[in-house]
Here is the input.
Amino acid sequence: MSCLFCKIIEGAIPSTAVYQDEHCYAFADINPKAPTHILVAPRKHLDSLASARDEDRLLLGHLLRTAAEIARTRGLHKGYRVVINHGEDGGQTVDHLHLHLLGGRALGWPPG
Ligand code: 5GP
Ligand code: ZN
Here is the structure.
C-alpha cells in the first residue's frame, strides 16, 4: 500500500483526527491554508473525483454532508469553502480523493 492517505486513514502515519465514521476520515491538513483547514477523505481508495463511479454517489454525498457538519460544529457560521482539486492543473498533489474544508478567514475568489 503506497497511498499516503490510505496510510493516514489506517493510522500507519499519524494525523490529527477531526471526525471519522465507517465511510470517511477527516483530519487536519499538515500545511493549513486557513485557520480551519480540514481534509475529508473516503476510507475507500479513489484516485480522484474522476475515479468515482455511479456506485460511489452516496459516498460522495456523504463526504459533502460530513464537511458541512464539521463546519457547523467548528462554528464556521460566517462561511467556508469546500474544494476538490483534480489533476495537475487543478493542483491535486495526493492521489486519494479528498475534500478541503477551509474557513476562519475571508477567502479570495477566484482561487489562484
Ligand atoms: P491536494 O493538493 O491533493 O488537493 O491536497 C493535498 C493536501 O494534503 C495538501 O493540502 C497538503 O498540505 C496535505 N498533506 C500532504 N501530506 C500530508 C500529511 O502527511 N498529513 C496531512 N495531515 N496532510 C498532508
Ligand atoms: Zn488511498
In short: The chain has three helices and five strands.
